Amino acid sequence: MKPTLLVGDYFVVAKYAYGYSRYSFPGSAELFSGRVFAAQPRYGDVVVFRLPRDPLTEYVKRVVGVPGDHIQMIHGVLNINGVPVKQERIDDFVETGTAAGTTRIKQWRETLPNGVSYATLDLYSEGFWDNTGVYPVPTGYYFVMGDNRDNSQDSRTSQIGYVPFENLIGRVDRIFFSVDAKSGVRFERTGMAVR
C-alpha cells in the first residue's frame, strides 16, 4: 500500500464503519451471518478484510469498485465503467535504505468519481497488471487494489479476487504510530489520517 501505508505503520481500524460481521470479532466466531448495522464502503476507502480464500489472513487495500461496476486497467490507468479515472503526475516517491541506496519511483495522484484523491506508485511502464480485461463486480462484493500498483496482490489476481462484503473488518482511520527499523520513530506520520 505504499505510499499511503509504509512498513512500520501501526494504524487504527474503524470496525463500526461498515457494521459488524463475524470477522469483526477475535477468532471469527460464527455468532451470526451477514452484517448488522451495515453501511456500504465508498470509493477510495482503505479497508482491512479477511482473504476470501483464507479467512485467517487479513489484507489492507483500497476500494476502487463497488457492486455493479466494471473495472479495467488500460495502459496503467484505472477505468471505472469505461471512464478513465483522473490521473496527474506528481513528484517521485523517494525510498531510502534500499539495497540500491535511494530509489525514486514514479508517483501519480488519482482522483475517483466521488472526489477521493490519493497517490499511487508506478514501478514499471506497461507492467503485467497495467492492461487487464474487464472485471464486472458482482452484487455483494467489492473490487480492491493496492496503491503500489505494480507490486500488489489485489482483486486483479486470483489469490484475492472480489472481496465479499461480509469479509470486511473495517476502514483504516489513522496511523497512531510509525517506526522505521533504521531511522527510528517517524513522528511526522504519527496521528496522520489515512485517505
What does the model show?
It is built from no helices and 14 strands. The chain has a single domain, classed as Umud Fragment, subunit A, CATH 2.10.109. The mean pLDDT is 92. Strands 1, 2, 3, 11, 12, 13 and 14 form a seven-stranded antiparallel β-sheet that branches. It is an all-beta fold and 195 residues long.
Tags for this model:
14 strands; mainly beta; 0% helix; globular; 46% strand; Umud Fragment, subunit A; 7-stranded antiparallel beta sheet; 195 residues
What's the gist of this structure?
This protein is mainly β. It contains no helices and 14 strands. A hairpin with a 2-residue loop joins strand 5 and strand 6.
Question: Secondary-structure blueprint of this entry?
Answer:
Blueprint: E1 9-14, E2 46-51, E3 54-65, E4 70-74, E5 77-80, E6 83-84, E7 86-98, E8 101-111, E9 117-122, E10 135-136, E11 141-145, E12 163-164, E13 168-180, E14 184-185
Tell me the series of helices and strands, N- to C-terminal. Answer: EEEEEEEEEEEEEE
Tell me the CATH superfamily: Umud Fragment, subunit A
The total of helices stands at: 0
Q: Indicate the mean pLDDT.
A: 92
Spans with pLDDT under 50 lasting ≥5 residues? none
Q: How far apart are the termini?
A: 12 Å
Looking at CATH, which topology would you report? Answer: Umud Fragment, subunit A
Task: Give the C-level CATH assignment.
Answer: Mainly Beta
Decide which structural class fits the backbone.
mainly beta
Helical residues, percent: under 10%
Number of domains: 1
Q: Which assembly state applies to the chains in this document?
A: single chain
Shape: globular
Largest sheet: 7 strands, antiparallel
Q: Tell me what the CATH architecture is.
A: Ribbon
> How many strand segments?
14
In terms of DSSP E residues, the strand content is over 45%
Radius of gyration: 17 Å
